[in-house]
Amino acid sequence: MSLETTRPAWGTRMGFIFAAAGSAVGLGNIWKFPYITGENGGGLFVLIYLGCVVLVGLPIMISEVMIGNRSQQSPVGAFQFFRRGGSPWGIVGWFGVLAGFVLLSYYSIVAGWSLNYVYLALSNSFHGLGAGAISGIFDELYLSGARNILWHTLFMCIVVVIVVGGVRKGIEKTCNLLMPLLFLIVFGIMIYSIFLPNHGFLKALDFIFYPHVEKLTHRGVLEALGHSFFTLSLGMGAMITYGSYLSERKEILHSSFFISILDTVVALMACMMIYPVVFAFGYDAEAGPGLVFKTLPLVFSQLPGGYLLSVLFFLLLAFAALSSAISLQEVVTSTVIDRLNWNRRKATLITASVIFIFGVPSALAGSGGLFSGWADIFGMNFFDSMDFLASNWMLPLSGLFVAIFVGWAISDSQRRDAFGAELHAKWKYDAFNMLVRYVTPAMVFLVFMHKIGFLKLIGLV
Length: 461
Ligand code: PHE
What we know:
With 461 residues, the protein is mostly helical. It is 77% helix and 0% strand. It has a single domain (13-457), classed as Amino acid/polyamine transporter I.
């Protein structure tokens, strides 16, 4: 018998928003978005990304929250709720859970790096070092299987403690604390960046917002589209699960809107805090994935107040990763509670242990070791393979299914009812209906075709 006899619920509407925004705001915003913006020449890429958030991200976010809310169930049960009688749509729910499982296994490794960097920043390890030495710190970490496993273990333990604490006392309480802190830190560092020398802030604004048309490629457009649902935590059942703890139907539309805006604002602010620092010292905007772990510590080490800045920055990264990771674990935990009737503690401990073990080959990816043969067979190491699998395959596919499900598989009256159409102005439902039935699936389908190389095959890109 499950200990959770009644379904848990958020304590307040703000609690839901902070938890869902906590899921959305993650490494995707602070680590990935700035460097893909850099690689794609800023400007137009950012504008297209904003368009994708509105046309793809928002409709899928609303869809996920509404099917979770209406069914009051975790992903598998949520899909089945609308189509009773052995509906195969439950498989889509399982697919999302599996995607969350795979994603958390390697997300925890990058999150572990950020924990390690909090420690390094606290112990003032970057002070007085040159570019080579600071890059070396990251390379050494990446290559050390033992250190990766240590931080992976620590991070997963923190996730487990919070999720075992429950929806209200664990997740909501943590996010209520972390999210305001996170906003404060991003905002604080951004303000600091305004006063940097060499017009760093202005150069950054120009880089981020001025549309340099010539720098945009087809790949960039599709990357913007793909990133828009990674960053909003879509296609993994996270918003379905969090939506199922929401009791008010009226909140779905405005909350989804607000969460998407918060996520986007943090991503843009992350660029506005990172790029001024980079430009003020004439570093390369196209530093790629190493931007946060290699370039930033170097620049921080040369700035007044650099010690505090680097501690705050890596804390921010760790907080962002943590509030996202707990949502991934919660998807798996709540599915097991709902399907197998286990209690929360058992469900979390067992599934997190399996995820932890599944993450070990990713932790060892840099050091080769046991899994060095993997790269010979698949052309990339285990970590990159999992990222490729989750981000390029599972996410777009699951996102596409969510849009098709809400747009086509359920009836119009079910859609109206779950959306709460009668609670809003008519045009809002009409706009949603149009997007979720036509625009969103078409665009996601396009990303998917691109990801599997089909567009290249037929010579379109
Ligand atoms: N949105 C998170 C980020 O930007 C990643 C994530 C995806 C978290 C899916 C939960 C579910 O880093």
